[in-house]
Design goal:
By secondary structure, the protein is mainly α. It contains one helix and no strands. It starts with 11 loop residues before the first helix and ends with a helix.
């Protein structure tokens, strides 16, 4: 026996239950979507903070590297100047000995 689908009658009461279930489901979806939006916004904010902190850390690191290079150059120049001064002194004393 094959049932005729068109012969099945659905009362309005039963249709109402399905309608309410559908409405509740879409409200839940909206609530979840809202929560997802909040989660997404928080994640975006956290990422922005992380990027800001990373950028700040990078700038601090860069400053430290620049400072190290500047100090190294200054030390090298000081050593060169001291070496040159010592060589000049040695040459002066050597020339004094010869005379």
């Amino acid at each position: 026996m094959d049932a005729d689908v068109n012969a099945i009658e659905i009362d309005d009461d039963n249709a109402g239950i399905f309608s309410i279930a559908k409405d509740c489901h879409s409200e839940d979806d909206d609530a979840l979507t809202g929560e997802d939006n909040v989660d997404s916004a928080l994640q975006t904010k956290c990422n922005a903070v992380d990027k800001d902190e990373s950028a700040e850390e990078f700038l601090l690191f860069r400053k430290a590297v620049v400072r190290f290079v500047q100090d190294s150059i200054a030390d090298a120049l000081d050593r060169q100047k001291k070496t040159q001064t010592n060589m000049e002194k040695q040459m002066f004393f050597h020339s004094m000995k010869e005379t």
